[in-house]
Prior knowledge:
The chain is mainly α. It has helices at residues 2-21, 30-52, 61-87. Helix 2 packs across helix 3 (61-87). The longest helix is centred in the C-terminal third of the chain and has 27 residues, at 61-87. The mean pLDDT is 75.
Amino acid sequence: xxxxxxxxxxxxxxxxxxxxxxxxxxxxxxxxxxxxxxxxxxxxxxxxxxxxxxxxxxxxxxxxxxxxxxxxxxxxxxxxxxxxxxxx
Length: 88
């Protein structure tokens, strides 16, 4: 349970950083940015658990990096989906 809460906190940071790294016009507001970061953090946390094992607790810089990469990936997918849906 504590890992999940940690993923949420890191997700808030990852979502904001992903939006800073990939600037551009996105019709998403603050809530969507937070959800993007949380989802990216969960994705990154799951990948981190697979790489380093689920037994480790606490802060891992690799986990933050994977959370950020997960949020960037999701933001890129969101933009691709939005671009495709507006073209048709």
